[in-house]
Amino acid sequence: MIGDATTYTLWVYLDREIRIAVGALGRCTFPAGWYAYTGSARRGLRARLRRHCAPPAAKRMRWHVDYLLTSPHAAIRFMQLSGDPECAVNQRVAGTSPCPGFGASDCRGGCGSHLRYRGPAFDLQALAPSPSPGR
Question: Which pLDDT score, from 0 to 100, does residue 21 have?
Answer without folding.
Answer: 96
